[in-house]
Every structure is written in C-alpha cells, then in structure tokens.
C-alpha cells in the first residue's frame, strides 16, 4: 500500500507521491516544526516547482499538509526559507498574531524562454494561520535580479546585534549578504567568494551562529553543484566571524570541510526560530544527488529527506573546530529496546555474524565500537538473502572509513551510483559507528557525528544481516542494535 512500497523510507520524510527536492521554509512556531519542500505535484521528475508542506511535533513523525505555495505570474517557487516575525517588523501581523514570512525565489520560465538571464528574483509571502494559508506580498519581488543568471535560495535570519534581518543568497559562484529592517526592503552588504578549486554553482547557502568553547562562531554552509568530493552535488562549510555585514573565515587556507561525506545529503539548511531555551541548531537535508536523483528506481515518489540532525561545533583533529551532526534525540519516540551482544565474535581477522531481530518492513539503528590498532582494519557487512551487501571499512593506517555500495542491489540506473566513498577519521582511541538503516538509505555517524556519511541504497529487501570481520589487531568492543518503527503507522 501507500507508504509501504518497495524502498519507501519508513523513518524518513517523503511526499506521498511525486517529485521532491530541497527542504524549504523550515521554521518552528507554536509547537510545530514546519517543513516545506521543492515539489512537483504532477510528475515524479523535476518540473514547475511548488512548496509542498508537512508539519511535525517531534521532527520524526510527519503530517502531510496541502501545498503551501503555488507558481504565480512572477514564476515558479524555488528554494527559500521562512521566519516567525515575532516583533512584526514586516507589519503583516494582525490582532497580535505573529506572521510567518516565507522568503523564496521566483523563477520565471517565461523570461528564460525569451533568452533573458534575469529570471530569478526574491519574493515574500506571509501566513497568519500557522502556515496553513499564505498571502503573497503585492509588491513582489522584494529583491530584483541585477543581471545574474544564478541568483537564488534566500536564507533569512534575525541578527540581534544590528537589529536587522540578514539574507544569505546564492549568487553564481559566491554567497551575497543583504540586510533589511522589515523583510521588504533589502540592502546589499557584501559577498563571500568560495575558493577557486570548485567550479560548480553555489546553491542553498545558510549562515548561523554556534557556540565553540564559550565563544560565538558563525558557520557558512554552501551547497555546490557539481563539485562535491565524490562527484555531483554536496555541501561544504566555513567557520568564521560575521558582524552583520561581512563573513570572514577564521582560516582562509583551511582544507575544504565537507558537511557529510556520503553522496546523498544536499541543499540542507537549518530551522528558524528554535526557542532560546531549547538552543539546538537543527538541520535537515535532501537525501539525493543531482547526478542521478531523477532516475532512482522509485515510481510513486522520488526522494526523501535525511534524518533531522542537531549540529554542534566541537574540537576535532589537531584541536581544530569541526561541525558535528547527530540524529535528534526524539528518535527515541520510535525506538525499540536495545539488543546488546555480550560474547563478541570478532578478534583479529576473525569473521562473525551478529544476530539481531529486526523487522523487514521497519528500520533499525546499529551501534558498534571498535578498537583498531596500527596495520589493522575492521569491516561491517550489511546484507540480505538476495545477496545484496554494503561494506564499511575502518582503516587505521589510512585514517579513513570507506563506504562501498557497489553490490548494494539496484545500481545500474546511473553510472555514478555504484562506488566506494571515503571520509577521514581521527583514530584517537576506540571508534564508535552508528548506522541508521532504512529501506533505501544508510546514514553513518562516526564518533558521535564528527564524521557523517549519508548514502542511498536500493537492495531487494532491507539489509538486516550484520557480519563483522577484520584484519590485524582489530577488536569489536561493544555491539547493540534496536528496531526503529515506521513513522507512517
Ligand atoms: C538545489 C536547487 C536550488 C533551486 C532548487 C530548484 O537543489 O537547484 O538552487 O532553488 O533546487 O528546485
């Protein structure tokens, strides 16, 4: 049935039907987390964009709502953000009701077909009924196109020190910052150009503060297509200072920080208006890659979001800050009891199977801890009866983890899908690996999320088998798993 077809994610957000890409307009208001998304209601491939809409009280269970924003005379509705205008700076509020204001890109296909390049402009709409219905501002667009082909994806936040709204905008090969007192009049502040090694187009940027060792730092997210480390689209970030005008990276010569080393986490940004007493910085990404997103082997719907993650800046290798992402703790709401293994089979170079009881039509979390010495490796093989497998190998000498999905099931729909993808790992003591395994994805978090890796897989059935093997002096220290029940039941 619906929401239980082959490969239908059971613990990830998907639209009931048709095409989805980027998450949009994420804002928390009145006990509801809003998730809008790039949506094409008439087809399972990309087309004229709308904002689909869903809400959640725990970021885990989602309720599908009617489409939030439809195309209009200025164009279709590309990516953007939403804020709760609690001080009614926009004047859209009435009778003390806080307006939710969406800031998005209008893409004029009409202008584009006339051969013009100024077809992307920024517009706003507001809602006085908790995002259920929206009114577009009569003076749209609020930010006209200056003659630049790629001019989109506004991400807006309130900047307390300057008492202004800041818009972070993707502008071709750079990010531009604009400011506004009221979300209607926007003033250019500055641009931040990324380093030259990447020649893709910048998309869906985000700028947000995080605490690092008691100090405020600003993180700038840049989604890049193409130009990702492992091909296609991916997201990198910079750490630095922001004064309401300019972003200055702390270390302009730092090697590229990739947010997620898997192939399938793109265009992700953070939620607006998380209450101060909560204090979390919450993220969700689009779980696909533009290399093959339109041809993945699902029919009823196409694409899912990643699991929502909480972000923090922590000390990484060499005492440098690193952005860590962990699955939000409300995952507990769907978790079964931990099944813990005591007699661990794997010592040096010995293979062993870990028997857990999983549900074929649900998902699960697997949590393993290894002690790996020099010249040693440890491999996790997740498999099914159909002979599909993924292999995750921790390699101490190379200080890497490698995720191999070459034999993971259906892989032939695009030549860029099968492959082995690596990520740097600091082996400073035991290595903890957490895997969230759903019907068509595996999300890996190493050492509490210091390394994140999100990959799609299309196995015949859920990969419920767990085999561990190693070479050299590697030891499995702890092993536990638990069922994650479907969010749709
Ligand atoms: C990123 C993106 C955005 C754009 C949207 C269109 O995936 O290309 O830059 O606004 O998708 O659907």
From TrEMBL:
Residues 12-315 form the Glycosyl hydrolase family 32 N-terminal domain. It holds the Pfam family Glyco_hydro_32N. PROSITE patterns: GLYCOSYL_HYDROL_F32, PROKAR_LIPOPROTEIN. GO terms for biological process: sucrose catabolic process. Coiled coil: none annotated. The keyword Disulfide bond does not apply. One of its GO terms (molecular function) is sucrose alpha-glucosidase activity. It comes from the Bacteria. Keywords: Glycosidase, Hydrolase. Residues 357-475 form the Glycosyl hydrolase family 32 C-terminal domain. InterPro entries: ConA-like_dom_sf, Glyco_hydro_32, Glyco_hydro_32_AS, Glyco_hydro_32_C, Glyco_hydro_32_N, Glyco_hydro_beta-prop_sf. One of its GO terms (cellular component) is cytoplasm. Belongs to the glycosyl hydrolase 32 family. This is Glycosyl hydrolase family 32. It comes from Marinilabilia rubra. The lineage of its organism: Bacteria, Pseudomonadati, Bacteroidota, Bacteroidia, Marinilabiliales.
